[in-house]
Design goal:
This protein is about 20% helix and about 25% strand. By secondary structure, the chain is an alpha+beta fold. The longest helix has 18 residues.
């Protein structure tokens, strides 16, 4: 993939309803032609899509082959588009990781793109790469954007628009982050007394550990 250079708080059951300050409507980042959009998601978004019925990843139960060849000790090579590495989650889900070096104001930063989209289908890898470029182009406006982070992308077709749900993983600080303000009502709605950033930081670290569970086999790719 060629990337262009670019100048948990305590939970309790309340006795009365608690007002929730959040709309659940997320800000999106759009490409200039409006074809691509980036929408923030929490770590749970990956799990929701991983086993969602009708996502094209259902195993055909009437197709079976139980034979294991003799001396089966060598790793099995899994095909992947150029530049991508394929990994298998312990639960059996296939996902992919790509490492790239992006220039931000003359400073090179190593970034990783991770997706469980079916990259062997025509055009899917190119779409993921275009979504990554859109994310990087927006990230370039932040001088504080860190190096050695993961970008997790979950693409969805909505008519003629492709929405890439995403989050970034910051391994050094053990948190998730996004490029625009993130309405975290979905992950904080059951927590009472959440008012300070310190409270929210606890949940962000919890989200970090949850994200690591979703993509646990590419440590050499992401956490050098």
């Amino acid at each position: 993939m060629q990337i262009v250079s670019l100048h948990l708080p305590t939970v309790h059951q309340p006795s009365r309803p608690i007002p929730i300050h959040g709309s659940g409507v997320h800000k999106v980042i759009s490409s200039s032609d409006g074809r691509l959009k980036l929408k923030p998601m929490p770590a749970e978004g990956v799990q929701a899509q991983r086993y969602k019925p009708g996502n094209g990843n259902i195993i055909q139960r009437d197709i079976r082959n139980f034979n294991i060849p003799h001396m089966m000790i060598d790793p099995i090579e899994i095909s992947a588009p150029p530049g991508w590495q394929a990994y298998i989650h312990p639960e059996g889900r296939l996902y992919y990781c790509y490492e790239s070096v992006v220039a931000f104001d003359g400073c090179s930063k190593t970034l990783h793109v991770i997706t469980q989209a079916d990259l062997v289908r025509d055009g899917v890898a190119e779409t993921i790469e275009d979504l990554a470029k859109l994310a990087y182009s927006h990230a370039s406006q932040y001088s504080s954007f860190p190096a050695n982070v993961d970008l997790v992308l979950e693409p969805k077709d909505v008519g003629e628009t492709i929405i890439g749900e995403y989050y970034f993983v910051h391994h050094k600080n053990r948190c998730l982050f996004w490029l625009l303000d993130f309405d975290a009502v979905d992950i904080l709605r059951e927590c009472s007394g959440v008012t300070e950033l310190a409270h929210k930081k606890i949940e962000l670290e919890a989200q970090y550990w949850y994200a690591l569970q979703q993509f646990s086999r590419h440590g050499d790719c992401s956490r050098k």
